[in-house]
Description:
The chain is α+β, with helices and mostly antiparallel strands and 219 residues long. It has two domains: 17-82, GTP Cyclohydrolase I, Chain A, domain 1; 88-216, GTP Cyclohydrolase I, domain 2. It contains seven helices and seven strands. It has helices at 32-49, 62-74, 134-145, 151-166, 180-183, 202-205, 207-216; strands at 88-90, 99-110, 116-125, 130-132, 148-149, 171-179, 194-199. α1 (32-49) crosses α2 (62-74). It is globular. Zinc ion (ZN) is lined by residues 110, 112-113, 179, 181. Zinc ion (ZN) binds next to loops. It is an enzyme of class 3 (hydrolase).
Amino acid sequence: MDNDSGARPVPDAHLPAGLRTPVLPDAFAAPDEAKIAAIAGHFEAIMRELGLDLADDSLAGTPRRVAKMYVQEWFRGLNPANRPDVKLFENRYEYHQLLVERDITLFSCCEHHFVPIIGKAHVAYLPAGHVVGLSKLNRVVQHYARRPQVQERLTRQVAEELKQSLGTPDVAVLIEADHLCVMSRGVNDTSSSTLTSEYGGRFAADAALRTEFLRQIGK
Length: 219
Ligand SMILES: Nc1nc2c(ncn2[C@@H]2O[C@H](COP(=O)(O)OP(=O)(O)OP(=O)(O)O)[C@@H](O)[C@H]2O)c(=O)[nH]1
Ligand SMILES: [Zn+2]
């Protein structure tokens, strides 16, 4: 997508309103470099407020490092220009059984505390006329993970994106994740983890299919 044209892509415009990450419509009007410079300035102010000496050679580059990390890595999924192009191939081989992409690495960020969410995503679909390039399943997970999140919305965004791009409602998503906000602060519980799931089409209707999916991901 062209991020320099007058008509800028609206974040998550293709998702139902309730599933959109709350992002201002003009959030991506400025180029990434301007955003990085502005965030670095704000982060420097936070560090100063914490009492840190920015003259220290280890700390001096931190504001810009953090800003780059936010814009280019952790939160790159906020920018609709980074939405993956999900390539489909004709299903000439007539594969119509369950396809499971399991143990997809998941790094996200808790939108309440801005600390990591770390886990695995498992996605599955029943191919109809087309099959998807496998890596695109990982890319869809990453696109929605790389933004401030709650796990429930992330799960439903991934499912909805897959339904739309694969052209079938027969999609399953299960995410298991550790929330650093639960582990490292607050209740300080390092053993609990959070599982969320979304089942569409035949996965919602057919308990045996769900069981088979869960068996294949080792649940
Ligand atoms: N539903 C949901 N809650 C989340 C997620 N990530 C973090 N939270 C919770 O968001 C809640 C925010 O609650 P608050 O009471 O405003 O924040 P807090 O005072 O820091 O709460 P504690 O974590 O209990 O100390 C906490 O209970 C978090 O555990 C998520 O992905 N989904
Ligand atoms: Zn949190």
